[in-house]
Design goal:
It contains 27 helices and 20 strands. The radius of gyration is 50 Å and the shape is rod-shaped. It has 5 domains: 3-178, no CATH class; 265-314, no CATH class; 317-357, no CATH class; 371-437, no CATH class; 444-554, no CATH class. 44% of the residues lie in helices and 10% in strands. It is α+β, with helices and mostly antiparallel strands. It holds the Pfam family TniQ. It comes from Methylobacterium tardum. This is TniQ domain-containing protein. Residues 14-80 form the TniQ domain.
Length: 555
């Protein structure tokens, strides 16, 4: 080895920098052993047999024995033996003195107990990278060595052990096996890594309730990447794990994973799937099948797969869906259903839905019928207004007005420009009032008509004789319903005219002023037919007036 190579492969670090540089590779703090070493007892035995110097000076140290990621001898395929130094110096420890005290006296036993490794692929690759060799076909070789080796160990640990396993709890053989497993997987590429991560997630048994921590799923590989959030060397591995988590774990939109937030959900839980499809949990299970949650498993289903499951029922709308689509309230949708304007699906056709549902085409057809004759209006003015504004004043229900529109009994129906929701529908309030009141019955007499038939009667006071039983309202008139026309029965008006005479009519018959006529009738002993404070008018019986006139003519 040249002097240049010796300097290049000697671990060094700058003053104040704990990271070491070896062979042009920057390794994180702690990667180079300073108070201990690792040895291969077979290599030590070969050195002893090869040289003729003093015994403790014959074994040579190897660079890879000082590097933390290396735990296997690439030449003999044995797990290295970790040896703590008796005493450490400022620059490290005396390798020869450590071996003379710790290894050489028990070398035969160490060789007999040496544990064979599961492979040397990781060590061979690591040493080759130290020598500057790269393989374009190796997925790891475009990543700095420290990041690639740490990822291999973390991935292997997660694959072989549980999520709570920490390197401090593992021995040299287990760590070597984990690095070997992780390397063999990662060297094949992102697809192989994804398959390994699938196995990790599939092995975790999730309860039906409660949150799921990412570290409890992926274990050590997640811990390695989370511990290096700002190191760009790990970005390739962070991307792979992040995309796998977004695609396989039910992470909610907006949740950050390894520094990046998920924009759109990719995996549904039972709760999110039920919410997105407007179903109860029980209805959702019936839809996807009970086998999806067999043995108490959580329901996890990708958004794409769930989309295919609900494709057959995407036209099935709940009352809330109909309300959002049409502008009606959910309560009004129930009224439309009761009136037969919207028909729900039979329970057998709801496709596992526990709520009543309506077909989207039926809802769209109903809205199209409402707007088929609507005239676009940019700025409607009274009496043209929305149904919600007109209905309270007329004390009429929405369904009744909609039936008038559907039956084309309203001559004018409008819409706000091109709007197509319930709130955009316009009607003429005056026309609606006229249609609701109807043409009336020929046996009814309006208050104006009654005043014309009853000389001297104030139309505004007709309610007083009605209260006294002298007149009768029409059976079609309902005092508390402003839609009904205020009218009197013709029979009661004619009976009133034949029975009673007002002061004004009596004065006209007598040819006197009203005050003079009232004194004349009083002098003749003709009294009021009804108390003034009750009927609010002077009334006399017609027969009494006739008798008075007859007596005056005889005199």
């Amino acid at each position: 080895m040249s002097r240049f190579d010796l300097g290049r492969y000697t671990p060094t670090h700058a003053v104040g920098d704990k990271a070491a540089e070896v062979g042009g590779h920057r390794l994180p703090p702690g990667s180079v052993l300073t108070s201990a070493t690792r040895v291969c007892p077979h290599c030590v035995a070969e050195d002893l047999a090869r040289f003729e110097n003093p015994t403790k000076a014959r074994p040579w140290s190897r660079l890879e024995w000082l590097l933390l990621p290396v735990r296997v001898c690439g030449r003999h395929g044995a797990v290295l033996v970790h040896v703590e130094a008796d005493a450490t110096l400022r620059a490290g420890h005396d390798f020869s003195a450590t071996l003379a005290r710790r290894v050489l006296p028990v070398l035969d036993r160490l060789r007999a107990e040496a544990e064979p490794a599961t492979g040397t692929a990781f060590v061979d690759w690591f040493v080759a990278r130290l020598d500057g060799m790269r393989n374009p076909g190796n997925w790891l070789d475009d990543v700095p060595l420290h990041a690639a080796s740490a990822f291999c160990e973390g991935l292997g640990t997660s694959v072989l052990h549980g999520p709570g396993t920490h390197p401090s709890d593992m021995g040299m053989a287990d760590l070597a096996r984990a690095a070997e497993e992780g390397y063999r997987t990662a060297a094949q590429g992102a697809e192989a890594v994804g398959s390994a991560l699938d196995g990790i997630v599939g092995r975790v048994r999730f309860g039906k309730r409660g949150s799921v921590g990412h570290g409890k799923v992926y274990g050590r590989v997640h811990a390695v990447l989370r511990a290096n959030p700002k190191d760009v060397a790990f970005e390739k591995f962070r991307h792979v794990l992040r995309e796998h988590a977004f695609g396989r774990l039910p992470i909610s939109p907006g949740t950050a994973f390894l520094g990046v937030r998920l924009d759109e959900r990719r995996m549904h839980t039972q709760r999110s799937a039920a919410f997105s499809s407007s179903r109860s949990d029980a209805g959702l299970i019936r839809l996807v099948g009970p086998e999806a949650v067999a043995d108490g498993r959580r329901l996890w289903i990708t958004v794409e797969e769930f989309g295919r499951v609900v494709a057959d029922v995407e036209d099935h709308l709940t009352a809330k869906d109909v309300a959002a689509r049409t502008g009606f309230s959910a309560k009004q949708v129930g009224h439309l259903e009761e009136a037969g304007l919207l028909s729900p699906l039979p329970e057998a056709d709801r496709n596992a839905g526990s709520k009543r549902r309506f077909l989207r085409p039926d809802v769209d057809a109903f809205m199209a019928r409402l707007f088929r004759n609507a005239v676009p209006v940019a700025n409607p003015a009274e009496p043209r207004m929305t149904i919600e504004r007109a209905a309270p004043g007329l004390r009429v229900g929405t369904v009744e007005i909609l039936n008038l529109i559907l039956d084309e009994r309203l001559a004018w129906v409008g819409r706000h420009t091109t709007g197509g929701r319930y709130g955009d529908l316009l009607i003429d309030r005056d026309e609606l009032s006229t249609v609701l009141q109807g043409a009336g019955s020929p046996d009814d007499v309006t208050e104006t008509e009654a005043a014309a038939m009853l000389a001297g009667v104030d139309p505004g006071r007709l309610w007083c004789p009605v209260r006294e039983g002298m007149l009768e309202w029409s059976p079609g008139y309902r005092p508390r319903d402003p839609r009904s026309v205020r009218a009197l029965t013709r029979a009661s008006v004619e009976a009133f005219a034949s029975e009673y005479v007002t002061l004004k009519e009596a004065a006209a018959v007598l040819g006197l002023a009203p005050q003079q006529a009232m004194r004349r009738l009083a002098e003749a002993g003709i009294g009021d037919a009804a108390a003034y404070d009750r009927v609010r008018m002077k009334l006399y019986r017609r027969r009494d007036l006739t008798a008075c006139l007859s007596a005056a003519d005889a005199a």
